[in-house]
């Protein structure tokens, strides 16, 4: 039998969103905070059976065939909320053109990002960029719609441009005193950079998907995409992008 112990309004944290949108580095903020135990992409069934008497943070649980997933998510939302009612859900989003450029490595490897759109096999003959655009649009339309009423949207650009403010805001939302965790937060803040330099440390699970074909993470699309590329993919993501304030 599961026992739920309630403490603050939100003890636990779940970070969702499309791959290559900063979910990994956001999640690893909690590796720097002694307040939480952090799990990245843990199997959903294993996740449900963790000890939630102490604060847990996690990033995008992995699908488990025992469960019927909520559309656009890798798990059933109703089961999650029944098990962990005092959970804070964040939806991490990134400017779609930048995210599409970054998705190329994973999508080229037999559509390696999850959850896969249910029709992904129908897209296998399309160009790589169109596949990436379809993936981004599915996750940020159907997936986001599933949690829109309860999720807090966080943006990759805010995280990168001012990691100190970002981490402080997250702590305050979770009733964690930033001043009491000053050294922990500074350690994470130094890692988060817009370009590769001596301070930048990429999230562990992101490293296999890294490329050296751009100088900056924000607006990398300007280095990677041609006008022809934009004509191909912008119409696919324009409407979904606008709901997050990205005007293409």
Please describe what this structure looks like:
The protein is α/β, with parallel strands linked by helices and 248 residues long. It has one domain: Rossmann fold (3-Layer(aba) Sandwich), CATH 3.40.50. 40% of the residues lie in helices and 10% in strands. It has ten helices and five strands, in the order βαβαβαβααβααααα. A five-stranded parallel beta sheet has the order 2-3-1-4-5. The mean pLDDT is 94.
Question: What is this entry, summarized?
Answer:
By secondary structure, the chain is of the alpha/beta class. The protein has helices at residues 23-27, 44-48, 77-83, 96-108, 128-147, 156-161, 163-173, 182-191, 221-224, 227-243; strands spanning 12-17, 37-40, 56-59, 87-93, 151-155.
Structural features:
248 residues, Rossmann fold, 5-stranded parallel beta sheet, globular
Topology readout:
Blueprint: E1 12-17, H1 23-27, E2 37-40, H2 44-48, E3 56-59, H3 77-83, E4 87-93, H4 96-108, H5 128-147, E5 151-155, H6 156-161, H7 163-173, H8 182-191, H9 221-224, H10 227-243
Parallel strand pairs: 1-3, 1-4, 2-3, 4-5
- Radius of gyration over all CA atoms, rounded: 18 Å
Beta-strand proportion: 5-15%
Give the oligomeric state.
single chain
Specify the CATH class.
Alpha Beta
The main sheet orders its strands as 2-3-1-4-5
CATH-wise, what's the superfamily? P-loop containing nucleotide triphosphate hydrolases
Helix proportion: 25-40%
Structural class by SSE content: alpha/beta
What series of H and E elements makes up the topology? EHEHEHEHHEHHHHH
CATH architecture: 3-Layer(aba) Sandwich
How does the major sheet shape up?
A: 5 strands, parallel
Shape: globular
